[in-house]
Write a structure and sequence with these properties.
It is a single chain. This protein has 377 residues and is α+β, with helices and mostly antiparallel strands. It has three domains: 115 residues, Butyryl-Coa Dehydrogenase, subunit A, domain 1, CATH 1.10.540.10; 97 residues, Butyryl-CoA Dehydrogenase, subunit A, domain 2, CATH 2.40.110.10; 151 residues, Up-down Bundle (Butyryl-CoA Dehydrogenase, subunit A, domain 3). The strands form three sheets. It has a four-stranded mixed beta sheet, with helices on one face. Strand 4 and strand 5 form a beta hairpin. Helix 7 packs antiparallel against helix 8. It is globular, with a radius of gyration of 21 Å. The chain starts with 6 loop residues before the first helix and ends with a helix. The model has no long low-confidence stretch (mean pLDDT 94).
Length: 377
């Protein structure tokens, strides 16, 4: 992000970058492509030591941020992770921690937040379903009252790192409306099916809940406020996702720029030809636009400004569209070598295409923006 960062935030960014360079370079990402879990748990634990899962959690539960502006700090981490295509449930765990910190009971917070912050516990949000829409109105998984608690039945799709999760934050629908609850991954009736993903460095899963009994104590917040809580979670997820996509696109574009300087054709670097110069300049302009929308969004969402819903969706629609456009052309600018397994550019392109649709495709958010603006008129 092109933010005016404090000295502490700059140091935080540099520390994240050094850790990734040392412990999670692209060579390690490639090694994990065939790994069932898909991420290095030792690196995951180091992230906990560096505060990667703590910025949205209050200090009394082991959290805290560098600047006091937790969402901005989280986006700094996300952008650096994007530069290295870092695998693992970073966003998913932070969303679960955020939801508990915002709405969880004292008992739930004490039980789960210290582990989530330290990296000992992996959490993920089971939200989207088979219609591929990331909207509260699409939630159909049922929560039926029983014995003072609930019984869950239904299927959640596109669940980040479902196979590695210790707990699921499940968004369900009861007779009274939306509700959310924490469900252990090992609870009877929970089944995880790994899904194939275009992004080879990320794991997704389908989670089936068949008569899963959940006690009342596991409910997060109350049904009166559940819809607003889900909207807040979506806003945070979209903003952090955009920051990661910016890191992905920026790294892919830098890789392509260097290639056009190194690749010689007809006696000169191909980057010296005017047609390629124009394309690279256009892409830089587009990336600067994605930085700008993402720079504003975490401040608006983090401070609960009136335009938070607009800012998050403008960023997601803009970043989702242009990150894919830029990296698609970067792939083409590499020529034949860009189509080979050995070159990393295709891995960046895969992440961009995957990120474009996760948490809502650009056209979905554009329609939402129209609804928000018309509703405010």
């Amino acid at each position: 992000m092109e933010l005016s960062l404090s000295g502490d935030q700059q140091l935080f960014r540099e520390t994240c970058r050094r850790a990734l360079e040392q412990y999670a370079p692209m060579s390690r990402v490639r090694e994990l492509i065939d790994d069932p879990v898909g991420f290095d748990r030792s690196v995951w634990s180091k992230g906990g030591e560096l505060g990667w899962y703590a910025t949205l959690v209050p200090e009394e539960h082991g959290g805290g941020s560098v600047s006091g502006d937790g969402l901005v700090d989280l986006c700094i981490v996300a952008e650096e992770l994007g530069h290295y295509l870092h695998p693992g449930p970073f966003l998913a765990t932070n969303i679960v921690a955020f939801a508990l910190a915002e709405s969880g009971s004292k008992e739930l917070c004490e039980e789960h937040l210290p582990g989530l912050v330290s990296g000992e516990t992996i959490g993920t949000w089971a939200f989207a379903e088979g219609d591929r829409r990331w909207s509260a109105t699409s939630v159909q998984l049922t929560a039926r009252p029983a014995d003072g608690g609930y019984v869950l039945d239904g299927v959640k799709s596109f669940v980040h790192d479902a196979q590695a999760a210790d707990v699921f934050l499940v968004t369900a629908r009861s007779a009274e409306g939306l509700c959310q609850m924490v469900v252990p991954a090992g609870a009877p009736g929970v089944a995880v099916l790994p899904l194939d993903s275009l992004d080879l460095a990320r794991r997704m899963g389908e989670v089936t809940f068949s008569g899963v009994e959940v006690p009342a104590a596991a409910v997060v917040g109350n049904q009166v406020d559940a819809h607003a809580a889900v909207e807040r979670q979506l806003q945070v997820a979209m903003v952090v996702h955009c920051a990661e996509s910016n890191g992905v696109t920026d790294a892919g574009l830098a890789m392509t720029l260097q290639y056009t300087k190194d690749r010689v054709a007809f006696g000169r670097p191909i980057g010296s030809y005017q047609a390629l110069k124009h394309r690279m300049a256009d892409h830089r302009m587009r990336v600067e636009g994605t930085f700008a929308t993402t720079a504003y969004a975490p401040r608006a969402v983090g401070r609960r400004q009136e335009d938070a819903a607009l800012a998050a969706r403008v960023a997601k629609a803009h970043v989702g569209k242009w990150s894919s456009v830029v990296l698609h052309d970067c792939l083409q600018l590499h020529g034949g070598i860009g189509m080979t397994w050995e070159h990393d550019i295709h891995l960046y392109f895969r992440r961009a295409i995957s990120n474009e649709v996760l948490y809502g495709a650009p056209d979905e958010h554009c329609r939402s923006l129209v609804d928000i603006v018309e509703g405010a008129a």
